[in-house]
Amino acid sequence: MDELKTAEAPAPSARLLDRLRGAWRDVAGQFGASRGLEPHLPADDAEVLRAQMRECLAGKGGEVSARGRAAELGRSYLALNAEGRGRFLHILADEFGTDPAQVDAAVAVLRSAPDRSWRQDAERALREALESPRIKLLTQFNALPQGVKFLVDMRAELLARAKGDPPLAALEAELRELLAGWFDVGFLELQRITWHSPALILEKFAAYEAVHAVQSWQDLKNRLDSDRRFYAFFHPRMPDEPLIFVEVALVRGMTANISELLDESAPVGDPSRADTAIFYSITSAQRGLAGISFGNFLIKRVADRLGHEFPNLKNFATLSPIPGFRSWLDDKIAAGDALAGALAGRLPGKTPPAESLRPPLMRLCAAYLTSRHEHTRRALDPVAHFHLSNGARLEKLNWLADTSEKGLTQSAGMMANYLYRLDDIDDNHEAYAGQGRIAAASAVRALAKG
Amino acid sequence: MDELKTAEAPAPSARLLDRLRGAWRDVAGQFGASRGLEPHLPADDAEVLRAQMRECLAGKGGEVSARGRAAELGRSYLALNAEGRGRFLHILADEFGTDPAQVDAAVAVLRSAPDRSWRQDAERALREALESPRIKLLTQFNALPQGVKFLVDMRAELLARAKGDPPLAALEAELRELLAGWFDVGFLELQRITWHSPALILEKFAAYEAVHAVQSWQDLKNRLDSDRRFYAFFHPRMPDEPLIFVEVALVRGMTANISELLDESAPVGDPSRADTAIFYSITSAQRGLAGISFGNFLIKRVADRLGHEFPNLKNFATLSPIPGFRSWLDDKIAAGDALAGALAGRLPGKTPPAESLRPPLMRLCAAYLTSRHEHTRRALDPVAHFHLSNGARLEKLNWLADTSEKGLTQSAGMMANYLYRLDDIDDNHEAYAGQGRIAAASAVRALAKG
Amino acid sequence: MDELKTAEAPAPSARLLDRLRGAWRDVAGQFGASRGLEPHLPADDAEVLRAQMRECLAGKGGEVSARGRAAELGRSYLALNAEGRGRFLHILADEFGTDPAQVDAAVAVLRSAPDRSWRQDAERALREALESPRIKLLTQFNALPQGVKFLVDMRAELLARAKGDPPLAALEAELRELLAGWFDVGFLELQRITWHSPALILEKFAAYEAVHAVQSWQDLKNRLDSDRRFYAFFHPRMPDEPLIFVEVALVRGMTANISELLDESAPVGDPSRADTAIFYSITSAQRGLAGISFGNFLIKRVADRLGHEFPNLKNFATLSPIPGFRSWLDDKIAAGDALAGALAGRLPGKTPPAESLRPPLMRLCAAYLTSRHEHTRRALDPVAHFHLSNGARLEKLNWLADTSEKGLTQSAGMMANYLYRLDDIDDNHEAYAGQGRIAAASAVRALAKG
Amino acid sequence: MDELKTAEAPAPSARLLDRLRGAWRDVAGQFGASRGLEPHLPADDAEVLRAQMRECLAGKGGEVSARGRAAELGRSYLALNAEGRGRFLHILADEFGTDPAQVDAAVAVLRSAPDRSWRQDAERALREALESPRIKLLTQFNALPQGVKFLVDMRAELLARAKGDPPLAALEAELRELLAGWFDVGFLELQRITWHSPALILEKFAAYEAVHAVQSWQDLKNRLDSDRRFYAFFHPRMPDEPLIFVEVALVRGMTANISELLDESAPVGDPSRADTAIFYSITSAQRGLAGISFGNFLIKRVADRLGHEFPNLKNFATLSPIPGFRSWLDDKIAAGDALAGALAGRLPGKTPPAESLRPPLMRLCAAYLTSRHEHTRRALDPVAHFHLSNGARLEKLNWLADTSEKGLTQSAGMMANYLYRLDDIDDNHEAYAGQGRIAAASAVRALAKG
Asked: What is the value of pTM for the model shown?
């Protein structure tokens, strides 16, 4: 999807990198000039790098100096090209992991602990032995301007390289643990975004929005109008970088069509008279935080806040894409499914499907959305899985709801509403997580059965 | 000391507790009414508590509900008396630690790992097994208002109880690891405090100041005057609670007497003409963060900032207490030391010592400050140890520098200046940390030799 | 009173004046060194001053330079003693007024204007001729740091000197017109004050509070507790100086006794359950703004805001002093009034009156509060006049309501509640302003009749 | 021009008007429903309006109610069309001016004043009589949200209608006096604008920029880069509306070509190494404040601030358009001037002039820029007049400096640098204002002589 797939973060411009390097040069300044490594990091330069890393860890001169050296090391990394970065990361992964001898020794102590009290001391020592030097080194970046963002982006780079590369995968996993601690939802700040927000921030939303692409500043302004709400989570050490954000329309009745919401010329509604909050876009903005979940919290905290601000709101629902339907359908057709087979060759690519296709498509889509993987017991559709595991209910299927090229390609133009009903969230979550039971309105259920 | 001994945090008033419980009641509200435990936590109530803790961990209904239950559990804790809290903490310590079977199994997998890649996966699994349920449970408090402060205070309570109680000591150690991650200096915010700062915050400085007690609001205002600087570290999730703070006077020449600085009627100097910044008080405000050090960072960052603001500043030095001198001297006398023995019975308690005692006292004090423990190789005096390990140099010893009762009792009225010279910090730190060499001005050295 | 009598602003400390002069020296710096006048402004120095004033007005070098010269002139004024300031003000008053010839010429043009259009041009020219040079000069102070406060304080000084000195009275009147324009209520900012407010600001409230003196920071903190509200008006160019402020208690029922509200150990109420907002203190903080009224606006805006925040509030009332009762009563006794005469010699000074005196005192006080001056038709009591002209109603008289020395001396310990009922405010105001009719509850009316 | 001609404020959208009317409806709400006038204000509705105005002035029910009625009146105005507004303004102008009888009476008192003291009282009374009811009425708008902006826009409307309409001209003049007092430069706030500023504000700069039109958000971002500075004046009661703003480039050497500065792909310079600040655009944003000057202050305050921030800056200069050159040249040609005549028919419209035309064009332009009106003694060119009266010097003439269509049309592509040298500003200003002497570099002078 969309609500799960993280936005493709725009590549940082050369100008931005220049500035970041500049800022870190100031921090590093007093600790000796940069060594000017070659971008692809040939063997000699790699040796220089190893020395830098060891110095960072040696902590010579106290922690303040150490952070200066971290800035220097960061500058080295940023100046490398893709090949050089691969080498940099492998040096970290191959040579700065835990010390097996130390771990084994701690394990030996643990195994021979005579009682519970000794054992607890031994566990503590073992935890310490299991914390790798590279993580201690990377932690030092949190004190640098943009240092936390640097680590988040480094993890994004690791994720892209980890497949089939166990050392990088191990480094990636350790970095994930570190970031998961820092980005625990308790430390995040929920901010309302408006047209009064800094242009710098709004520009990022436009770049990151992954569900319904932002067409222009005017489009963005429309999404911040008085009958809309726009919320994002931020981390105190990454104040200019949204982590995840949600766009909400305050309307009367359940919105069945996304173009109504994106139409800049539509009249502005009166939010105090709205009875329904439609969450029509939710985007994770940081690839480097994949697998660290905030979406669940964001939706519930926003719903809670809106409920207080607008006592007339009765329903909290999404208007969501159905990203996996068309490829599932194609598989179905290929597999010779009877019902699906009738559609073979009749589905246009970039124009809305004919009205005559509505009954079979709606039925198949309802069936798709209420189906689970046999093994994982998860809903087949990733967006469905996201909302169902949050405790929402599949409420309604909408025909010709998103006739953009993307909407037609993904789901033949259909979209779904998921309903968040406070009283049912816990039970729905339990039933889905425990027995894989999918909460769906009876109309959807009936539709699926044909 | 003082610069190491953490302030005795004032006991929270009943009114404050009422409010905190109130705030948490609102969070907990939707998750069922409080069970109203007895303050001393009899067996039946302990059973209720165990159930609460298990529910928190079960995560039923998603993480949002879990945090609501954490608020409920926190309210239970706050309503207990000392006896009840002891029981509460022991339940956590005895019953919610790591699962030995799970740890042993992870150890077994690690020991049989056939190669490095398997081994890294096994280490990751072992790290996970070593993270106790109680730490997962306590982590949930970070999302509550004042929740981080709650954990800091809980650790203070554990520290007070841990001696001779291995289970609580183990819990304390785990909580320390958790807090050390959260309070990594990279996440802290350096704030300048002025008379424009909120009364709420200033009130806390007055309560926490441990080196030179604040006598009145007028005294505090004097310390915030235009020829002074006052800086503190804060954590984003504890915005109203200073972690550590330092008071600086901008003067000409090295201040030798604390009363000059505390005299409210003294004329205000012109900071732009000052050549010396005197750090005359540094206080750790949170007992529950003992052992997690920021003082080193605070001094260096403040020195850096002042150096930029006032280019005329040439020296950065402290005017510090010598908290351990008198008790060392008494031990010396008791042990029959010749030089010290001459002072036996001649040291007044609450009046300044006679001028005739100046030579032997100065000599003995210089000797004390330049002495180390045989084993730890640390300076005997804790304040000396703190500054020497930061890379400062013992610069000067001052006679009749603090004639308050406390000053006379601790150090016969003497105080010391430690000098922070940017160029020497690294070498001094190295020499002290490595070989235990104490950096001292030649005059002090000569004094010590008599 | 109190609600009308402006607070005695604390004399600015010498230290503050030093700073202000310092700041202005920086502004003035580039325009030549200060001339160092003698504090009592002898004739020679007066000549220097005249030249400074003329230069300010000449506007040589553009307006920026002119403001630099204004800063210089302000520094001269601040360095003068009482005698010197008198001379300074008289130079302004005697020599920098309007130019009679210019005014007369403009009048002549007006009188001969042949039609309405000419006449309007002539009026415009006349308005310009009537704006004195001294006002143009003083206007330049608004660009200086603290410059607006400087003018406000200068008017306070003029008010103190104007009686029997027509030139200073004329200058005072012109300055009043200038300030009335700047301090039009549309430009003021309503701020809520809490324990989070800057100490600098809170210190001023403590100094200015004129109705119930602030005893300590603890007393002030009590007035900012969660069952209280504290609001003040500020001007954007005097951000650290409150203009007027009001203290409100959120209670159940009409408070009849001030000590309940000032008792720091009283339990904190739940504001969401309050049905009554008691305005128990309202103080004008700037003597130099006497006669420019904001109190009316402050009370109504605060009532409006509280009504939105606490929908359960039903009544908005004051608990007010009765400052003029005792002196009225003494006059009555001296004049041989029968009822009052019975009290002659029976009213204690500093102890609460005996219960036996309750009926006659209550009756007389009710009579006093419902009486008007024959000519002005205003209520005799200044606080009564203030609230009645705002449209409030005299609601209740309270026995032993303020037994502080001040309360006993002013009003034999009695206080009054005035009720603000939104629906009646306009009619009450009209009736009072038009026919001098005093709105009072029937019980008070009955009491007055005996 | 440009630096004097005020930006054409964009017409407010219908949506904005809707909101403003909505906000005022809330204020007006409690004072009775809107009467729904016809847009063109027929006679009956005009009668309703008169009654509204009279009620506003009657002040019935206190000032708070009066402001509610002002909101109601403002809503009436906003709902009118051009015809209706003309009638609205004429009612104000014709029927709510000063009372001639009252003015005449005050004049009579003044003329018969026996001494200075009486005279001063009479002047005060006359000033009061000369303040028209309509100004009292309009003043009430300052308390409404956007009320000050409402008056500024009303003056813009009056300016457009005043020519040949003496009553509206008189009303306009009075409103100008009122606004001049409120917008005295001492009350304005200088703000630095960056890419962190609210989008709402940046959008307005893009709309208002009158010298070099903003092409896109990217163009605007370029003007806010780290080697640029962007400052604006704001009024506290119009926080979202810039009054005037200036764009500055920090460069090495005197910039001779505007396209260098507007090129988004040009490399970013290092501002700390710049020696020259080029003021390349200055725009007044509010037509309704025409004739109330801030530009002078803005340039000098910004120069002062930059000088402190960047001690390496040595020159403060503009790169300015020459808006009147081409029309002056055409007049010259038409009048048969010999030198100019040689250019007749050889000046292309929209393409840069040939190199062969450089000598005569540069010579003629230098002559133009150093010429004055015979009567007013002002420089012929309005931009030249603006900078010369600020004390700047005409420093350099630049060939092919602005080859945009506008640049070619106005000045055959030439631009001028004006130099602000702190030491000479006062003398230059004096010489220009007093004797009309134009400060120009000798090279420009030589050029003009040919």
From this structure: 0.89
